């Protein structure tokens, strides 16, 4: 990289540095600050003064020290070797950093994101004299046992192949193709660079009709999202945002997972790093790490790099999308990212809007979520990026700016509820405050692939939950005794549904993940209980009598007792339940 | 670092141009680095310390720990040290008492430092961490049974004024131990703006248990300079890191009261004109607190650990106040003290539902505590949560109107609070005792209410 001095430091306030005498820098250019060459990015230019956000601790930096330009914006290295790696917010591989500088992160260390020594088995797909356009697959590399990496023509290159490597083992920086373009000959190694703040181009967005199956019942059944969709997970501290994100990272049926720990805890990253190589993906039989990339810019790491981390994540996601994969990205937490924006904006003495956040917060949020979607990529194949962003509203109050603005740009909302969390009802996704605008788009998939009555079952239980919440108002005032048995049955059904269906223990071997068939069958059993119970009550049975049926305790424990591989046991349970009720019915004539 | 500049840096200036609260503005200076340590001589000839908050061409903004009272523009001399605020660390700090920036208070000479370290530390590389999963037995049922403390965890106590947080913290510091292990244990105690008698209370406690030689105290008391509080936890953690990661000790860091720390931070922020977010606290309060709390943990390949127990008082018992709120967003759970329990004479008044230990799941169960522990804890939470609902209902419709099962829950609630939750200050229950009491109180509920327990567990433990 060509580095040249572009100015000298005149002021340092925390992560913000001002350089003067800057005449030849670009907006968003990557720069190196001071004698220690700390990584930074120009975020404002005013006459000859450049404002630089520095991605490392600025302690000890002095006015007068030089600033070096790199001539390019903050960019990622995109090529084989991303999967299974844990990066910081500006794509420094943390394991390599650890090997170089020990257990604590020190400053001014420059290491490449992709290993230059590791060799990959390259298989060419194109051949000499082929015409190439952006996004075409030049060749492939088996990146992990699960993921075939496609080496792509970078989005800004087209021409004719004048040379291509034969199959063989090469490091990422080895030139594997030479392309004659209008502007000259381009040599392509196995990786290319792409600026994090610019969305990668594609041929157009597609409709979102295929659900992202998460194995979490409250999500798949009540508030589903599609591949390529966007969802926010807001909740006060300890309500379960990270657990939801991790459950999705573990069990959802995306091809690639990108987990961004953005301003959160170090131990949560360690947890993922310990678990993912061990946990086996039920669909592929391979370790989850074989499909995951972790980005960790924890709360104690520099705040400017935290700001960059979500762009780093989404750019990697787009890159795999462009190979035709379905990528899911979890950003935990987008509030910490917004706070990083706020802090930098404050240091630049910009006019604050709501609660000190800069006025451009909504634009930035929109820009981020806009990069989600299901697209036809430049090579003409479908790929998707699903974004699941957690939001950490202060005091758990959803009226604060980040939650409110996020709501405008996502189409599903999983509201975590403090009361549920306190009662250890997990996941504490509120069935009253959450929504998914995708239900109608996704329903045909369920009806075709799982159960033709999916939509009506779902709507019915949603309605019962609404009824229950109204009835609870009455109960709170006068107690349940005044309600007729038909209404108390609604209460009981809702209670069964909450305990036996909605609650899902992330730590239980069987319960942590439910296949779609199990979900629908469980739902049907609970609704059958309701219908049969109602019929019985109308015939004169009492609810007390119904609740003594031993089969109900089987229903209550079915989520733990029936494993995903033996869902037919639920058919049997349903049969027996029907039989029990019709037998009882006989006694009432 | 080079630098010819470090020579220049030691130069002395008397070019102060402004004073405002704890801030000092100085001009006509050279080569001053961001965050560097400053010492100044006041007109009376006394030394004060500060750090550079903002460095610019020829000028700097300095926060003075002791405040600027008595300083004047003309007669204040300022020296720049060329390095950030450092603490000389050594194992000999054990058994010693220091002030809030690490100067001996016990009239003994400063311990011989093996190394001087930047008190801000450096972030632990997430991939270098080891996941905390060793159970620490505190001997307190509400904690061990339901909110288990794990070695390397950061678990704060959210309290209110007048509640028994000090008593509880002292009891934990006294009783905490890892089962079946005999490793070296130390307590680092950081006091920020607390009263002398509170500090006294802790010291006496450590003395009585003969543990004083394993304790390091850093005291910034109520009448000490408030700005100094901003460095006290960092100084304490720098010492803790040395003991833990260089000497392989298991260090429990008690920090009290974090609310005072946050107030000092707010004061500086306000004077500097930083944009406030909520209740006047600066937007970076979260990151600032995280830079303290994230220093807890365990590092691969190193023997020791840092467990943090910060204490804070919630203004008006309001858990949504920015200080507890942001703390809760950083720590790995919280022990919440409840005024209502306290009024009813229950000690420790640990609130059942809002308390949580997030690392508990990996440290309990078979091979660690007992196989029934996870379900038992979960069942106790569920049942106690029902108690709260029933009590709320009873307060509206009257106890007489409750159903029989609701009455059973009320009874359970009473047993739970009187027998499980309550214990004496000197009562050290081992984990088996805690779990057995848990079963005893649960056995006041009918078996089929125990929907979070397995059949086998009920067979084995119910009614025993
Ligand atoms: N599905 C679940 N199953 C079991 N326990 C859960 C579940 N979800 C949450 N919990 C419990 O709640 C705790 C807090 O959850 P989590 O860490 O996800 O909260 P959070 O919303 O991310 O909080 P913060 O904003 O502070 O990061 C967990 O440590 C766990 O004990
Ligand atoms: Mg979280």
UniProtKB/TrEMBL annotation, chain A:
Organism (species): Candidatus Auribacter fodinae
The ATPase F1/V1/A1 complex alpha/beta subunit N-terminal domain, residue ranges: 9-70
Q: Where does the chain bind ATP?
A: 235-242
Task: Look up the domain of life of the source.
Answer: Bacteria
Give the encoding gene's name.
Answer: atpA
Q: What does this protein do?
A: Produces ATP from ADP in the presence of a proton gradient across the membrane. The V-type alpha chain is a catalytic subunit.
* InterPro entries recorded: ATP-synt_VA_C, ATP-synth_a_Xtn, ATP_synth_asu-like_sf, ATPase_F1/V1/A1_a/bsu_N, ATPase_F1/V1/A1_a/bsu_N_sf, ATPase_F1/V1/A1_a/bsu_nucl-bd, ATPase_F1/V1_b/a_C, P-loop_NTPase
* Segments passing through the bilayer: none
Q: Which reaction does it catalyse?
A: ATP + H2O + 4 H(+)(in) = ADP + phosphate + 5 H(+)(out)
ATP synthase A/B type C-terminal domain residues are: 445-544
Where would I find the ATPase F1/V1/A1 complex alpha/beta subunit nucleotide-binding domain in this sequence? 215-436
- Where is it found, in Gene Ontology cellular component terms? proton-transporting ATP synthase complex
Q: What is its EC number?
A: 7.1.2.2
Record bears the keyword Coiled coil: yes
Q: This protein is called what? A: V-type ATP synthase alpha chain
User: Which terms under GO biological process does the entry name?
Assistant: proton motive force-driven plasma membrane ATP synthesis
From TrEMBL, chain B:
Which residue range or ranges hold the ATP synthase A/B type C-terminal domain?
Answer: 362-462
Q: Which InterPro entries match?
A: ATP-synt_VA_C, ATPase_F1/V1/A1_a/bsu_N, ATPase_F1/V1/A1_a/bsu_nucl-bd, P-loop_NTPase, V-ATPase_su_B/beta
Q: Where is the ATPase F1/V1/A1 complex alpha/beta subunit N-terminal domain?
A: 20-82
Q: What does this protein do?
A: Produces ATP from ADP in the presence of a proton gradient across the membrane. The V-type beta chain is a regulatory subunit.
One Pfam family this sequence matches: ATP-synt_ab
The protein's name is: V-type ATP synthase beta chain
Q: Where are the transmembrane segments?
A: none
Pinpoint the ATPase F1/V1/A1 complex alpha/beta subunit nucleotide-binding domain residues. 139-357
Which CDD domains does this entry report, sorted A to Z? Answer: ATP-synt_V_A-type_beta_C, ATP-synt_V_A-type_beta_N, V_A-ATPase_B
GO terms of biological process kind: proton motive force-driven plasma membrane ATP synthesis
Q: By its UniProt entry, which SUPFAM superfamilies does this protein fall under?
A: P-loop containing nucleoside triphosphate hydrolases
The entry lists its GO molecular-function terms as:
ATP binding; proton-transporting ATP synthase activity, rotational mechanism
Extract the Gene3D superfamilies matched here. Answer: 3.40.50.12240
Q: Which organism is it from?
A: Candidatus Auribacter fodinae
Record-stated family: Belongs to the ATPase alpha/beta chains family.
**Keywords for this protein:** ATP synthesis, Hydrogen ion transport, Ion transport, Transport
Annotated signal peptide: none
């Amino acid at each position: 990289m060509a580095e040249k001095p572009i100015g000298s430091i005149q002021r340092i306030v925390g992560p913000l540095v001002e350089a003067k005498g800057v005449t030849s820098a670009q907006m968003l250019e990557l720069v190196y600050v001071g004698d220690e060459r700390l990584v930074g990015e120009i975020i404002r230019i005013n006459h000859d003064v450049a404002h630089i956000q520095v991605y490392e601790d600025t302690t000890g930096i002095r006015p007068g020290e030089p600033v070096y330009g790199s001539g390019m914006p903050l960019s990622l290295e995109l090529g084989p070797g991303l999967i299974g790696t844990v990066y910081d917010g500006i794509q420094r591989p943390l394991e390599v950093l650890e090997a170089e500088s020990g257990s604590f992160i020190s400053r001014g260390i420059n290491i490449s994101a992709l290993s230059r020594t590791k060799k990959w088995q390259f298989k060419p797909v194109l051949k000499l004299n082929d015409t190439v356009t952006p996004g075409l697959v030049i060749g492939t590399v088996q990146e992990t046992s699960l993921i075939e990496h496609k080496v792509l023509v970078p989005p800004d290159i087209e021409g004719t192949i004048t040379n291509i490597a034969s199959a063989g083992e090469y490091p990422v920086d080895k030139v594997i193709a030479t392309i004659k373009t209008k502007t000259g000959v381009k040599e392509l190694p196995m990786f290319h660079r792409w600026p994090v703040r610019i969305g990668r181009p594609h041929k157009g967005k597609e409709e979102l009709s295929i659900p992202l199956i998460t194995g979490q019942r409250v999500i798949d059944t009540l508030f589903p999202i599609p591949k390529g969709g966007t969802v926010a997970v807001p909740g006060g501290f300890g309500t379960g945002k990270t657990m939801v994100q991790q459950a999705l990272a573990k069990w959802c049926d995306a091809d690639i997972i990108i987990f961004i720990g953005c301003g959160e805890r170090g131990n949560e990253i360690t947890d993922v790093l310990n678990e993912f190589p061990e946990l086996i993906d039920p669909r592929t039989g391979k370790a989850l790490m074989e499909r995951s990339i972790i980005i960790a810019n924890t709360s104690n790491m520099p705040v400017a790099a935290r700001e960059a981390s979500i762009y780093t994540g989404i750019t990697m996601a787009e890159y795999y999308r462009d190979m035709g994969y379905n990528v899911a990205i979890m950003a935990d937490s987008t509030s910490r990212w917004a706070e990083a924006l706020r802090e930098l904006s404050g240091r630049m003495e910009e006019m604050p809007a709501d609660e000190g956040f800069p006025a451009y917060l909504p634009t930035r949020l929109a820009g981020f979520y806009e990069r989600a979607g299901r697209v036809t990529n430049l090579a003409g194949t479908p790929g998707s990026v699903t974004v699941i962003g957690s939001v950490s509203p202060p005091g758990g109050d959803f009226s604060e700016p980040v939650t409110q603005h996020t709501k405008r740009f996502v189409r599903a909302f999983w509201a975590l509820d403090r009361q549920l969390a306190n009662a250890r009802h997990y996941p504490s996704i509120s069935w009253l405050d959450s929504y998914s605008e995708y239900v109608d788009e996704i329903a045909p998939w369920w009806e075709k692939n799982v159960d033709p009555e999916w939509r009506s079952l779902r709507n019915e239980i949603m309605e019962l939950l609404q009824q229950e919440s109204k009835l609870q108002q009455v109960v709170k005032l006068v107690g349940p005794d005044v309600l007729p048995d038909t209404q108390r049955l609604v209460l009981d059904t809702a209670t069964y549904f909450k305990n036996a269906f909605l609650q899902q223990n992330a730590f239980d071997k069987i319960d942590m993940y439910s296949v779609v068939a199990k979900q629908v069958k469980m739902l049907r059993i609970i609704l059958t209980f309701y219908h049969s119970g109602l019929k019985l009550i109308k015939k004169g049975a009492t609810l007390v009598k119904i609740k003594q049926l031993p089969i109900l305790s089987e229903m209550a424990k079915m989520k733990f007792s029936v494993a995903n591989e033996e869902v037919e046991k639920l058919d049997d349970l349903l049969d027996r339940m029907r039989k029990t009720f019709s037998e009882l019915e006989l006694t009432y004539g | 670092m080079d630098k010819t500049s470090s020579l220049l840096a030691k130069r002395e200036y008397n070019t102060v141009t402004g004073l405002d609260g704890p801030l000092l503005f100085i001009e006509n200076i050279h080569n001053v680095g961001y965050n560097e340590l400053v010492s100044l001589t006041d007109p009376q000839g006394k030394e004060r310390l500060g750090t550079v908050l903002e460095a610019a061409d020829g000028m700097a903004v300095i926060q003075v720990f002791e405040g600027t009272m008595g300083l004047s523009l003309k007669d204040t001399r300022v020296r720049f040290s060329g390095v950030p605020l450092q603490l000389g660390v050594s194992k000999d700090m054990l058994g010693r008492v220091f002030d809030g920036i690490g100067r001996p208070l016990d009239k003994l000479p400063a311990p011989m430092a093996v190394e001087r370290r930047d008190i801000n530390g450096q972030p632990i590389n997430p991939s270098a961490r080891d996941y905390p999963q060793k159970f620490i037995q505190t001997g307190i049922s509400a904690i061990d049974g339901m909110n288990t403390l794990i070695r390397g965890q950061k678990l704060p106590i959210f309290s209110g004024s007048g509640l028994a947080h000090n008593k509880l913290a002292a009891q934990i510091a006294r009783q905490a131990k890892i089962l079946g292990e005999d490793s070296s244990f130390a307590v680092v105690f950081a006091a920020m703006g607390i009263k002398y008698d509170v500090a006294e209370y802790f010291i006496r406690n450590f003395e009585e248990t003969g543990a004083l030689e394993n304790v390091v105290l850093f005291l910034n008391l109520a009448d000490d300079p408030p700005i100094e509080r901003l460095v006290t936890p960092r100084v304490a953690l720098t010492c803790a890191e040395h003991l833990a990661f260089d000497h392989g000790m298991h260090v429990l860091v008690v920090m009290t009261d974090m609310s005072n720390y946050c107030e000092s931070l707010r004061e500086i922020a306000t004077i500097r004109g930083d944009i406030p977010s909520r209740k006047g606290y600066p937007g970076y309060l979260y990151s600032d607190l995280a830079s303290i709390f994230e220093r807890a943990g365990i590092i691969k390949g190193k023997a020791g650990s840092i467990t943090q127990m910060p204490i804070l008082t919630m203004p008006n018992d309001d858990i949504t106040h920015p200080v507890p709120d942001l703390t809760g967003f950083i720590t790995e759970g919280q022990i919440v003290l409840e005024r209502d329990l306290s009024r009813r004479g229950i000690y420790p008044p640990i609130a059942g539902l809002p308390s949580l230990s997030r690392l508990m799941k990996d440290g309990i169960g078979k091979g660690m505590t007992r196989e029934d522990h996870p379900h038992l804890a979960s069942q106790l939470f569920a049942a106690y949560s029902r108690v709260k609902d029933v009590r709320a209902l009873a307060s509206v419709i009257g106890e007489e109107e409750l159903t029989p099962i609701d009455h059973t829950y009320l009874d359970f609630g009473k047993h739970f609070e009187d027998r499980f939750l309550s214990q004496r200050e000197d009562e050290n229950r081992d984990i088996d005792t805690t779990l057995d009491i848990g079963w005893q109180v649960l056995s006041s509920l009918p078996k089929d209410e125990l929907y979070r327990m397995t059949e086998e567990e009920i067979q084995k433990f119910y009614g025993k």
